[in-house]
Amino acid sequence: MPPPRDIEGGHPSRQNSERDPLLDGSNGNGYAVGYGNGNGYMVPQGQGPARGGFVRHVYSKTKAVLLSNYVNILLVFVPLGIIAGVMGWGPTAVFVMNFLAIIPLAALLSFATEELALMVGETLGGLLNATFGNAVELIVSIVALTKGEIRIVQASMLGSILSNILLVLGMCFFFGGLKHREQNFNTTVASTMSSLMAVATSSLIIPAALYSTLAGSKEASFGLILDLSRGTSVVLLILYVLYLVFQLGTHSYLFDAQHESAERGDETDDESPPEEQQIALLSGIESGIVLVVVTVLVAICAEYLVGSIDDIVASSGISKTFIGLILIPIVGNAAEHVTAVVVAMKNKMDLAIGVAIGSSMQIALLVTPFLVILGWIIGQPMSLYFETFETVVFFVSVLITNYLIQDGKSNYLEGAMLLGIYTIIAISFFVYPDSAGSLGGIPAQP
Prior knowledge:
Blueprint lengths: L6 E2 L2 E2 L1 H4 L23 E2 L10 H14 L10 H11 L3 H27 L4 H12 L1 H12 L3 H30 L3 E2 L2 H27 L4 H33 L1 H16 L4 H5 L1 E2 L4 H24 L1 H8 L3 H13 L1 H12 L3 H30 L9 H18 L3 E2 L1 H20 L15
Parallel strand pairs: 3-5
Antiparallel strand pairs: 1-2, 4-6
């Protein structure tokens, strides 16, 4: 890329910025979009608009945010969902409107996170994407936990993991394989993530196995399971912190090499270099403002969504498990799913796997243990004890995923396998009644 023209004091000159081709169709603010951050991206300078005033600046930024994704047309359901909840409309209307409202809000969270990630580098940016990519499930789960809906919390956590390692990864393999005969990815990074997922799987198997061997009353046995779950959650959180040190510190070269390899592969394609140059539409502060506003809106919609679930279950016959395990994760991860598939079709499988498995690992090692500790603090019996059927499904899913990624290659048939097993699991949970086992991890609770 040729060096910027007319640099004065390290900043692009306003005098010639309007004729800089990088500004065409960028952010529409009438001033230079800035300079490189060392990661191959262009970021805003952080200065105000050159002319037009504050109102024009806010208008242009708002326009850029709203036009960032076609799915934002569903933002009309955000006020409708809130009004439906406040006015006490029927539970079906409240559920459907807030369900649809969360889809574009999740897309806006993803957009703002990606804008922020452009300024902090590939590795930390990927971590931010995974963190805020799980924000919707976390918010919904916290709201459900405060209401005592432990069944929804557990199903949402398990569903988020399954949707990422089966649905998202399967779609990446399938659609990427249709465009590319065989795709390769970094086996070291993938195996590290999958190994941590195997550890997370054991944290669910052990409580279920212990509960099945305990004698005495179910209430006394569950008290022991709570103690085990809380201790295990602390261990999982420590493991996640160690993984962050491993990823961002001591072994960061593994992840950096992963991206450098992808970039070297892109450079062999004549059409790739222009695609690598990305322009940030928002500054760091503006991205933070969007994240805060959208997070508040998600929390409000989640409040009404969770509050209507009991009536929906009673009127439709759909189980809480199916709503939490299939519907909520698909909605919460919709934008992230699309991004991963698009990246896979560009033959950047390292990034796609980082989104799919990395997000699942964060749910298993960070979000779920955090919710167990939070439940302990607020007096809710959230545990790592899942039903035997759910635990087996989780174990089989992680096992299949580990088998498919261990060779460092993927094709469309492997993607079809993952999509097939996810479809089977979805059907099984659709016919699986809540009454088949304990609700919320508490045996014999009505």
